[in-house]
Write a structure and sequence with these properties.
Largest sheet of chain A: 6 strands, mixed
CATH superfamily of chain B: ACP-like
Order of helices and strands of chain B: HHEHHE
Number of strands of chain A: 15
Distance between the termini of chain B: 20 Å
Number of domains of chain B: 1
Strand content of chain B: 5-15%
Strand order of the largest sheet of chain A: 6-5-7-8-2-15
Number of helices of chain A: 11
Largest interface: A-B, 21 and 17 residues
Strand content of chain A: 15-25%
Strand order of the largest sheet of chain B: 1-2
Oligomer: heterodimer
């Protein structure tokens, strides 16, 4: 069973970055008609989301967040021991985008850097990995987590396009002998792989030369079976939270907030009802930002818990679940932190020029 | 499981006039059937009957009555709510 208790690690700060362009219900009315758009917004709770232009990548959003966070924390660039980049929308198939970010951020060449391909569960996995790395002797880890799912959504797919938004986040994790333990529980079920998938674009569905098999002209576009995802959520998330609380020896009364992956408002509201979780214990960001995949947990902390996290220590349970299927939860104390900022990033002028200049 | 009550619950779920949904109706032909109302159906059955529907089994059910018997009996298509 993938469970871990890790001490001596502290979350030191978070910055998030979202693109400036906004799509909202009025956009959806234009695409799908008023009745359908309003019904979708009412059911999912999504009023708007942020969307990148065709030149901006997840790494650009995460870079902006990281620059801000490193400066505000006063972390010298060569003091970062490792960079973890968690995304399912990397810049390239190869090299790893984390290598590109090491250069773009001016980190030391003695810094370890690697990518992880996870979505909804990615932030919890990232915290787990960073914490373990600190346990082996590293002092500072920069965890960059984000996605630009809008770039793989079909505009006409009314089950995905109005659901997903784009965001990048940076989290600083540091060694701190006085920090209390964090309790992690993770799980996986690959039987669910087809229910949230970008099937084409890589090797399983192409011939030796990268051409899509068969007559399909399908590019790398997202398919999602909402009913299957909901069923998976009902089956796995309540027991996951229960197991995490048991590992931490916490009761739900001890918890200040359960920060859930913002899958959609209907799922979140039903989960809260099922687990008898009061509204004040479940912060939300889905209304303003939509489902931003791996970025939802830190973005929700910034959007809905900035006051609480900057003025006090909060007992949090973070819960990521979805694509894979993959899931993970961590119970940890967090704060007080510096301000959890949400930056707005204007469209990239020329990402290739930025790369050449790095 | 009372079939009349189940049809009434579906009337409420799909925001239809009382008595609209019949036991012989095909689920996917109910006015308002969509991916969102499908999730609503899963939630309603979970809450009212403490059964987590498997979507594939729901889509195979020939009628409302067929689905009701799956929910009410021991069936490979369903699982007890976690």
């Amino acid at each position: 069973m993938a469970q871990a208790t890790i001490s001596g690690v502290r979350l030191a700060g978070i910055t998030c970055a979202v693109p400036s362009a906004i799509e909202d219900t009025s956009t959806d009315i234009g695409l799908y008609g008023e009745e359908e758009a309003l019904k979708f917004s009412e059911t999912t709770g999504i009023k708007s989301r942020r969307i990148v232009d065709s030149q901006t990548c997840t790494s650009d959003l995460c870079q902006a967040a990281a620059e801000d966070l490193l400066d505000r924390l006063g972390w010298e660039r060569d003091s970062v021991d490792a960079l973890i980049f968690i995304t399912q929308t990397p810049d390239y198939l190869l090299p790893a985008t984390s290598c590109c970010l090491q250069s773009r951020l001016g980190l030391s060449t003695k810094c370890a850097a690697f990518d992880i391909n996870l979505g909804c569960s990615g932030y919890v996995y990232g915290m787990w990995l960073a914490s373990q790395m600190i346990g082996t002797g590293l002092k500072r880890v920069l965890l960059l987590v984000g996605d630009t799912p809008s770039r793989v959504c079909r505009p006409e797919d009314r089950s995905t396009r109005p659901l997903f938004g784009d965001a990048g986040t940076a989290t600083a994790i540091t060694a701190d002998p006085s920090a209390g333990p964090s309790y992690f529980v993770m799980g996986t079920d690959g039987e669910g792989k087809n229910n949230l998938i970008v099937k084409h674009g890589l090797f399983r569905e192409s011939d030796r030369f990268g051409t899509a098999r068969g007559n399909t002209a399908e590019g790398p576009l997202l398919f999602m079976d909402g009913a299957e995802i909901f069923t998976f959520t009902l089956q796995e998330v309540p027991p996951l939270i229960k197991q995490t609380l048991k590992l931490a020896n916490w009761s739900m009364d001890d918890v200040n907030a359960v920060v859930m992956h913002q899958a959609n408002g209907f799922i979140l509201n039903y989960l809260a009802k099922r687990m008898k979780l009061p509204a004040e214990k479940m912060p939300l960001s889905i209304g303003e930002f939509g489902n931003t995949s791996s970025a939802t947990i830190p973005l929700t902390m910034a959007a809905a818990m900035n006051t609480a996290l900057t003025t006090s220590t909060q007992k949090l349970v973070m819960v990521g679940f979805g694509v894979g299927y993959s899931w993970g939860s961590v119970a940890m104390e967090c704060g007080p932190l510096p301000e959890l900022k949400i930056l707005t990033v204007e469209p990239s002028t020329n990402s290739l020029t930025q790369e050449q200049a790095a | 499981m009372n079939l009349t009550d189940f049809c009434s619950q579906l009337d409420d779920l799909f925001e239809l006039d009382a008595g609209t949904v019949k036991p012989t109706d095909s689920l996917q032909q109910i006015p308002g059937w969509s991916s969102l109302t499908f999730m609503g159906l899963i939630a309603m059955v979970d809450e009212e009957y403490e059964v987590t529907l498997k979507p594939a089994a729901v889509l195979k059910a020939a009628s409302v009555a067929d689905l009701a018997s799956l929910i009410g009996g021991d069936s490979a298509g369903m699982s007890k709510a976690a």
